[in-house]
Amino acid sequence: MVVMRESWTDDRLDNLREDMNRGFDRVDGDLREVRSELGALRSETNARFDSMQRTMVIGCVTIVGSVVAASFGAALI
Questions:
Q1: How many structural domains does the chain have?
Q2: What are the 10-residue block averages of pLDDT along the chain, 77 residues in total?
Q3: Residue 14 domain boundaries
């Protein structure tokens, strides 16, 4: 009776180990997919911040140019 129980337990543990390995392989694949998606999202986010920074610089230069032009215009009048 003890031999059967040990054999059953060993078989079940082997099955469990195989199932766990398959599960971890799937999780590894999912993590690789998530990492690649995050990399793409990071690139897109950086591009958007660069665009926003460029727009802000152009806006500030325009405002400063307008103030300087208005000052010269008021000085001429």
A1: 1
A2: 59 87 90 96 97 98 96 86
A3: 1-77
